[in-house]
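Good morning,

Attaching, inline, the backbone tokens for the sequence recovery test we're adding to the shared suite. The designed sequence is right after.
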């Protein structure tokens, strides 16, 4: 990411546009969160991680944080613990999505996050009972050993969000070990859907931005557009 190119009028305009787009995504409910009344996963789950893909790790995190803060101030959302917790997982998901091309030894933060989250989860009495749930926390680590494929990158990003959210959730929302056990098939299904949604959204935006660039409407050199994920240019298994 070329910061000099991004911090131009067009670059800043795109950053603001992405913040607004993700802000809209926050208000489109996707599914309810088990154990939390009137709390929902939204289409922000699809949009948040890919900010890192287009803007890079640092600015991707800024874009995600900006959209969430905008939601707080414009909607007048209460600064409850649950709401504050939900700010952090997507920041790390955007970071992971941007950094997944860096293998294990080069992305120390991306590798440490799941282990720290697992330790935090296991320190809780209920977490210690359902210790096997931390196997989900290792998904982003395992993916670092595999080739960089969009679905795997998306899966690693959404499970990174899961590790952070779950390790904080267990300390703030009372749930029994039985409820956590019942969540296992839900987590598998839910995170697979999220990974597919992230992948599809990334392909759609890459395709749109590539088309805009080809029409010479504006200069998009400040962004990272992956031709491998542009419809019509996609390579098999890429």
């Amino acid at each position: 990411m070329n910061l000099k190119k991004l911090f131009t009028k067009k670059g800043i305009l795109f950053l603001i546009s992405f913040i607004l787009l993700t802000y809209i995504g926050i208000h489109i409910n996707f599914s309810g969160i088990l154990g939390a009344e009137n709390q929902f996963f939204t289409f922000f789950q699809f949009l948040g991680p890919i900010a890192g893909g287009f803007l890079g790790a640092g600015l991707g995190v800024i874009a995600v944080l900006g959209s969430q803060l905008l939601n707080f101030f414009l909607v007048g959302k209460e600064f409850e613990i649950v709401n504050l917790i939900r700010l952090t997982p997507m920041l790390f998901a955007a970071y992971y999505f941007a950094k997944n091309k860096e293998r294990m030894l080069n992305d120390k933060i991306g590798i440490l996050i799941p282990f720290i989250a697992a330790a935090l989860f296991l320190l809780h009495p209920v977490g210690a009972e359902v210790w096997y749930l931390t196997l989900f926390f290792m998904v982003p680590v395992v993916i670092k050993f595999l080739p960089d494929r969009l679905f795997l990158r998306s899966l690693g990003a959404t499970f990174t969000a899961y590790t952070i959210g779950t390790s904080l959730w267990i300390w703030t929302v009372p749930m029994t070990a039985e409820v956590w056990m019942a969540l296992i098939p839900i987590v598998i299904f839910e995170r697979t859907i999220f990974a597919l949604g992230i992948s599809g959204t990334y392909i759609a935006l890459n395709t749109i931005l590539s088309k805009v660039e080809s029409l010479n409407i504006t200069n998009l050199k400040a962004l990272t557009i992956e031709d491998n994920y542009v419809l019509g240019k996609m390579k098999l298994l890429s």
